[in-house]
Design a protein that fits this description.
3 helices, about 110 residues, single chain, 4-stranded antiparallel sheet, Alpha-Beta Plaits, alpha+beta
Length: about 110
Amino acid sequence: MFQCSFMFTRIHHDEEFQRLDDAIADYARSLEGFVGSDTWFNSDSSQVNGVYFFETMEAVRTFAAFPQHREAKEKYAQWYGGYHVVIAEVHSTYGDGNFPHVTAQAR
């Protein structure tokens, strides 16, 4: 399984951002190999970590090639004060079963 973390500092969100963000999320969910996603915010919601989980690197590449995803990448400076991406291979996940998480089903 692969985890794609997109961390950014939010400076502005408008209708165009929301349209692209919704289209990207919908596309991710439609892909074979999509496991799930999380979104985390710092305490004042100015920094965001959007995390997508995929079964294969091929699914990650397909996601990255989505036209609206590429469009958002080109326009990122309109909405973000900075960003950082981490793509990592997940070797294991675990917990006590009392914290539901999308990766619990992927074991």
